[in-house]
Amino acid sequence: MAVASIESRGLTKRFGSFTALDALDLKIEGAKCVGFLGPNGAGKTTTLKMLTDMIFPTGGEAFLNGVSVQQDRKKALSYAGVLIESPEIYPSLTPREALEMVADLRGVPPADRRGRIDEVLAEVKMGDWADQKVGRFSKGMKQRINIAAALVHDPEILMLDEPATGLDPRGMAEVRDIVRGLKRRNRLVFMSSHILSEVTDVCDEVALINKGKLLFYDTLGNVTARFSQGASSLDVAFLGPQDPKAIQDRIATLSGVTRSEILDPRRIRLWYDGKLETQARLAEAIVAWHLGMTSLVESRSALEEVYLSQIERGD
After folding, report:
1. Is 24 helix (H, G, I), strand (E, B) or coil?
2. Rounded to whole angstroms, how far apart are CA atoms 158 and 151?
3. Helix, strand or coil, per DSSP, at residue 86
4. What's the start-to-end Cα distance of the chain, in Å?
5. Closest C-alpha among 172, 176, 220, 12 to residue 208
6. Given pLDDT bands bounded at 50, 70 and 90, which one contains residue 271?
7. Pairing of strands 188-193, 32-37
8. Residue 81: is it exposed, middle or buried by C-beta count within 10 angstroms (0-12/13-18/19+)?
9. Phi, psi (deg, nearest 5) at residue 165
10. Contact indicator for 206, 303 with CB cutoff of 8 Å
11. CA angle 55, 307, 19 (to 5 degrees)
12. Which of 204, 268, 274, 193 is CA-nearest to residue 232?
């Protein structure tokens, strides 16, 4: 079986004088989860809609498993399961009935449908609700059924447009857990998001887009190593106020700290290399100062530091 792939070549979309996507060149291959990250309005949904032929590009071309979406739509999209902008499900239907309709549209043979529907409902942890009315479901449960609908024809590629947006914390956690399971099943998952923790939790690689332009695409580890300098940071709090010069003199003695900032008289922020060993060593050193440290917590993830620096640079 060929390696699953998503590719865009010079993909461009203009709405009048506004360029929503500007000559996007991106090629993703293999079974993994790739986060398509960017602020609201960056061009993420526009990209997904052109990759799935929901809107036509102004220029360029999109390919799924090497097949042009614009030249051979039916064959290209047969490889993909898609969830964009959370479609509603008829409330009077059960998940099984709704998935029967989708399976029919997707050409799943009648003899295989029941088994396939049971399989995808189990995959999204909705097997116990297969014959209950959808109208009684929470938003998170409905989203899981939408993901099942994208999976019912067993696609090699799955494209998800901000799948956890609008869900409560429990629903968000459930969707993230499902995505983790999906990438273990030899699928290429391409997931747009503007939530940094979501991408960090479930993705292997990340592509960052802003104002319609691709800023980078790489593994999470390579991204933070390439673009950050001391990207991880720690917020340290003390019981009482500290003398600014004295605390800065102490910070200067700490090995592994790349920069620091006094947040207020009782709190400082330290940037370091992100390694747990360095974090442990810094904690031990600061405790040894006997200044009444009350907490030491991560202030930002490495990806957050990179994200903010790259977005600000693009403004």
Report:
1. strand
2. 8
3. coil
4. 43
5. 220
6. confident
7. parallel
8. buried
9. -65, 135
10. yes
11. 30
12. 274
Q: In what order do the strands lie in the sheet with 232-238?
A: 259-264, 267-272, 232-238, 293-300
Answer yes or no: is pLDDT of 91 > 60.
yes
pLDDT of residue 30: 92
The sign of the dihedral angle between the CA atoms of 284, 286, 290, 295 is negative
What burial class does residue 29 get, using C-beta atoms within 10 Å of its C-beta: 0-12 exposed, 13-18 middle, 19+ buried? middle
Q: How many angstroms from the chain centroid is the CA of residue 246?
A: 42
Query: How many other C-beta atoms are found inside a 10 Å radius of the C-beta of residue 67?
Result: 17
**Tens digits of per-residue pLDDT, 258-269?**
888 898 999 998
Average pLDDT over the chain reads: 89
What integer is the mean pLDDT of 123-139? 93
pLDDT value of residue 228: 57
Output the pLDDT for position 98.
96
| Residue whose pair of structure tokens reads 């609908």 in the numeric block | 149
DSSP 3: P
Residues 270, 256: Cα–Cα separation, whole Å: 10
What whole-number distance in Å separates Cα of residue 171 and Cα of residue 214?
30
284 class by beta-carbon count within 10 Å (0-12 exposed, 13-18 middle, 19+ buried)? exposed
Q: Kindly state the average pLDDT of the residues 155-181.
A: 88
Q: Which residue has the tokens 């116990």?
A: 128
The alpha-carbon radius of gyration of the chain (Å, integer) is 23
Nearest CA to 307 out of 213, 204, 195, 230 is that of 195
Beta-strand relationship, 67-68 and 59-64: antiparallel
The encoded tokens of residue 302 equal: 């490495």
